[in-house]
Amino acid sequence: KPVLRLAGIAKSYNHGKPNEINVLRGVDLEIATGEIVALVAPSGAGKSTLLHIAGLLDTPDQGTVHVSGDDMTGQSDRIRTRVRRGDVGFIYQFHHLLPEFTALENITLPQLANGVGKSTAEARARDLLREVGVEDRAGHRPAALSGGEQQRVAFCRALANQPQLLLADEPTGNLDPATADQVFATLMGLVRGTGLSALIATHNLELAARMDRQIRLEAGQLVPMVS
Ligand code: ADP
Ligand code: ADP
């Protein structure tokens, strides 16, 4: 069973108005276990809309979304939220860490919210911080970390609850090119090491080429990129 399956996804905004915009026009996508897929899309193409639908933050007008084999179409908000918190990890261009909490706490808190005990959650947080090479920053708040370190901690938070699927929107887009390159390598190592599936949006074709498969969002549909 694919970890993510989108079939016939359509989404438009401003329905029936003169400024109606059909952002997605029949999107089909399957991501297998352990597969890392690059999503390449010009700004405004509908990348965020697609990621939000895949991550159960938004619903399509038409089509079906399966996460970990389960049909999410028409499910209640309560069930969609539970699946999202359990099965999906999100990474954004900006870290969105909680400023009042340390790096360790930012990774521990989502686990506590999911019912994991404190010592188990902290041990997992430390393991993750070690994997991305920032274990010595565990006690610092986000403001005390460099941009690259902040993103590394955000990766750990996204993986804290052991999701099946990682959705990332320009995960290194905020960093200078040299840092972006290193931080991206860290992300790839983390994802490959855990064997989870990922859909990673990027404008950077060099980064896209390091993933298993590249697709482009064009005129509301996904088209494979030939390299
Ligand atoms: P991307 O992430 O690729 O830049 P988005 O998915 O954010 O694209 O948006 C795709 C298009 O849909 C854009 O033209 C945007 O202005 C429009 N759009 C996005 N969200 C809304 C909304 N809530 N209401 C109306 N239009 C929207
Ligand atoms: P929380 O446990 O903090 O209530 P949610 O279940 O609301 O989290 O969200 C799960 C994930 O989805 C989080 O990583 C959060 O950053 C992200 N998220 C929630 N709402 C939105 C949104 N409107 N736009 C983008 N990402 C969101």
From TrEMBL:
> What is any one of the record's Gene Ontology cellular component terms?
plasma membrane
Q: Which GO terms describe its biological process?
A: lipoprotein localization to outer membrane; protein localization to outer membrane
Per UniProt, residues of the ABC transporter domain are: 4-226
Record's CDD domains?
ABC_MJ0796_LolCDE_FtsE
Keywords, ordered alphabetically: ATP-binding, Cell inner membrane, Cell membrane, Membrane, Nucleotide-binding, Transport
According to the UniProt entry, its GO molecular function terms are: ATP binding; ATP hydrolysis activity; transmembrane transporter activity
Q: Which InterPro entries has this protein been placed in?
A: AAA+_ATPase, ABC_transporter-like_ATP-bd, ABC_transporter-like_CS, ABC_transpr_LolD-like, MacB-like_ATP-bd, P-loop_NTPase
SUPFAM superfamilies per UniProt:
P-loop containing nucleoside triphosphate hydrolases
Tell me its family. Answer: Belongs to the ABC transporter superfamily. Macrolide exporter (TC 3.A.1.122) family.
The name under which this protein is listed is ABC transporter ATP-binding protein
**What organism is listed for this UniProt entry?**
Sulfitobacter aestuariivivens
